Structures are given as structure tokens and as C-alpha cells.
Amino acid sequence: MVLGENVFPVPHGYAVSADGDPLGLLELIQRGAPHSVPCSTSPVPLTDVHLLAPIPRPPRNVICVGQNYHQHSLEFDASGYNSTPSNGVPDRPVVFTKAPSSVIGPGDVIPLHDALTTELDYEAELAVIIGRGGRGIPAEEALDHVWGYTIVNDVTARDVQRDHRQWFLGKSLDGSCPMGPFAVTADEVDLTDLLVETRVNGELRQSAKTSDLIFDVPTLIATISAGMTLQAGDVIATGTPAGVGIGFDPPRFLRSGDTVEISITGLGTLTNTVGGAAGTDHGASG
């Protein structure tokens, strides 16, 4: 079943509970909703709505995995941007996070943040949505905890990432986590051989299969949950293939007006355009 934040085709793009309160996808997942839920209203054409990210404001940081495709791990080490080179392939998953405020939806503008960075990069990623939480989840049971999957673009300010050594600031700029266009339930997705591709202004930049993952989804869930309780609605971005901007010589960073399209088999295409600077909002909160 394919769902967006517009979970059911009802007015205002929300599911409705038995008492009439609107529910988003996150609330449905947290309530343990099944993958298939009956709908008694007429569909609304996609042309009549603006899709939000499937989970527009995650309750916790988006959990991410770095250097999880063989060729990308090599290109990242060779780029000079990795403050802790792995000399090829990491022996354990490299885990970091992005702030919830970084999430935007399909069609939203990626801020250029040109007052802060001149090296904005793209990263196509398969993202896992946790449906049933837990700690110490064995790898052989990990997929039982998955609600579904979506696409994430792990937009990164490479100079900020490099200069601060820890990746959080370079990965957490506002608008640096496009997500969508849909969430697809786990029963509809075969993880073994999904094609992950990125196009920038129509030019193919990234193309790889999930079979090239160094650490597969069950291993990632087992590793992350070993000492930290995963919660329903948590999002795990599983890493990006080779072909990011820093992998070129010279590097090919995003510029204002660029259009980034990320496609994954069965999950649709996430499209966003790069805009101008995000500006400063001293009154922003929550």
C-alpha cells in the first residue's frame, strides 16, 4: 500500500479516527495501524493537493548511515572530506543523525544556504520507517519491526561536514532532508535488488542496486537497537551509492535552480529544486 502524509484520500489530506480527529501517517504508525486500512471516501487527485513528507516532522532525529555502499565508501575516502577515513570499507556501520527540522517534502525547495556553504551535495537513500519499536532486536527478526519505506535525499554541506569533523551540523541544515514522495508498506517492497538513482537537471549521477549495501537493513536495525530503543515512526536512512558531487574531479556541487530527482524501484521519484539562501529566522521554534 502506498501512502503519503495524505494518508487517506479525504479532505485536507488526513486520515480520520473513529472520533473524527485527523490523523497523519506518523500517528497511524504509532497507533499500530495495519498496512491496509479501509477507506470510505472518494479519492482526491494528486493534482489537487500538495504532498508533504510522509512524516513531515519526525519525533526524533532521522537516523542515518554513512559509507554503506562499497563504491561510495571508496569515493568518500578519496575525496579528502572524510575526517576519519575507513581505508576502503568500514567494519561497522557509521551512524549519525539529521535534525527533524531538516525534513521537507516532495516539490519543496532545498535552501541553498549560500551564506554558510558553497559545497551543497546530494545523496539518494532508501529510508526505513520503523513500525514496531524495540531494543536489542536480532537481525533475523528486524524486518518484523519495519512498517515501510520511503526515499530520502541526505543533502549535505560538505565544507561544514569536513570542518566540524562530526557530521551533524553539515547534515542538519534546514531543508536538507527531502523525504517522499510516498511511504510504501513493507509488504510491497523487495529489498534485495532495488535500483537507486539520482538525476541532476536530467543527468544521471547515481545508479546502484541495494544488493551493493555493505550492511543490509536487518544488520542496521540490529546494530542501532543494540543499546538504543527504536520507536514507532523512527526513520533510518540506509546510505548512498557512488556518484555524489564530491566523487567528481572537480566536485560538482548543487547550484541555485538545479533540479534533483531521486528514484527507487517501487517507491516513486522524489523531486526537489535548489533555491536561494534559507535566511535567518530568530523567531523559529519547535
TrEMBL record:
Keywords: Hydrolase, Metal-binding
Pfam families: FAA_hydrolase (PF01557)
Family annotation (Gene3D superfamilies): Fumarylacetoacetase-like, C-terminal domain
Domain of life: Bacteria
Molecular function in Gene Ontology: acetylpyruvate hydrolase activity; isomerase activity; metal ion binding
Domain Fumarylacetoacetase-like C-terminal residue range list: 62-274
Biological process, per Gene Ontology: carboxylic acid metabolic process
Protein name: Fumarylacetoacetate hydrolase family protein
